[in-house]
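Encode chain A's predicted structure.
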Amino acid sequence: MAGIVVSFVLNQRFTFSAHQEARQWSRFMPFVAVALVGLVCTWLISLALRYGLPLPALIGKSSASVAFAMATVLASLITYPLNALFVFGKKRSATAAIATTAATS
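Encoded structure for chain A:
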């Protein structure tokens, strides 16, 4: 629980640059909902990568860790635009975030 509170505060302060008067804890529950979406995405993508690709044959014993790391990165590409759009209310930022993350990947 402490991790999600720290993540919320840091995202609100630095990633989405909310001004002091605009910071609201009412955004916390939507943030938790997006975090849960990210958790499910990470889990499903990790399973798909681990069992859908021949990672054990290619990588060996570290296939589970590699699948989880790749899933974490891919889930971040999903949750950042969701946070920008639904939690922090930056509609223009969400479309720009999708374009930016796609361009830098």
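Residues 2-18+26-104 form one domain.
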